[in-house]
Amino acid sequence: MRTALATLLQPVARPRITTDRELRRYVAMVTAIALVAALSLDGAQQMIFFVSWEVTLRNWTLTTVIVLVVTIPVSLLMGLPQRELYQAKLLVERLSRTDMLTGMLNRRALMEAAEQEPDAATLMAIVDIDHFKRVNDTYGHQAGDRVIETIGRMMSARFEGMALVGRLGGEEFALLADHRSLRRLTGSIEAFRKALQNRPIVVGDRAIVVTVSIGLATRRASDPFDQLYAETDGALYDAKRSGRNQLRLAGEGEANGAAEQFAAA
């Protein structure tokens, strides 16, 4: 009996309230329990000291009003902190996974996404803004931030639905996708690179021309993610060493021609 009662009252004593709907349900449940308990006690009292049905109905009405007036505000005071605490936890978690400058996924979120399915084959690309220090030195750090923001927005819009896109940090971005998207995504990344070099980024009254170097690699289901990351980073290094403003696929030569072959396949 005690165990059953404890189970019944657990949602009241230890509520888990995460939404407005759950808060309303909690208030209704607490109010209903309080009302049933109060009317039961009042009914027992009326059975012992019965005067008339008129008096009994008046007492029950008064009891109901008192319970509603007291219980609803009290249950709200108990439930609101639970909902706000949960929402605060969600906000902290979201902020811990979001890059503050661009609003994109941050490095942690990208790494977690890549490691959630360790047996899945994955494609990864790292995009690095060429000579970004020169941008900061020439135009100032605020202009550099605007460049990063703009490229982040462009990537998010272009690859929406195709890949997870985020900022690794500094002037580096990353894309993660299923390896079966290799042909389509390689062509899209190459198109993005070409579009960026022909589209100056306007910051105030200045038009800043930037280019990007890109490394791309894929892994088999049995390969660890660390290996994929290292191969992607190596492909990026090859792109920089070969003159920047180009896409390199790990284990292959320059991918510009490969992208055109993929698009034609």
Automatic annotation (TrEMBL):
Q: Which InterPro entries match?
A: Diguanylate_Cyclase, GGDEF_dom, Nucleotide_cyclase, Rev_trsase/Diguanyl_cyclase
Q: Which UniProt keywords apply?
A: Membrane, Transmembrane, Transmembrane helix
Annotated Gene3D superfamilies: 3.30.70.270
GO (cellular component) term, any one: plasma membrane
Signal peptide span per the entry? none
Q: Which residues form the GGDEF domain?
A: 120-252
Entry's Gene Ontology molecular function annotations: diguanylate cyclase activity
Q: Which reaction does it catalyse?
A: 2 GTP = 3',3'-c-di-GMP + 2 diphosphate
Q: Has the keyword Methyltransferase been applied to this entry?
A: no
Which PROSITE patterns does the record match to this protein?
Answer: GGDEF
Q: Which SUPFAM superfamilies match?
A: Nucleotide cyclase
EC identifiers of the protein:
2.7.7.65
Task: Name the GO terms of the biological process aspect.
Answer: cell adhesion involved in single-species biofilm formation; negative regulation of bacterial-type flagellum-dependent cell motility
Pfam families in UniProt? GGDEF
Task: Mark the transmembrane ranges.
Answer: 26-48, 60-80
PANTHER family tied to this protein: DIGUANYLATE CYCLASE DGCM-RELATED, REGULATORY COMPONENTS OF SENSORY TRANSDUCTION SYSTEM
Name of this chain's protein: diguanylate cyclase
Q: Which organism is it from?
A: Hansschlegelia quercus
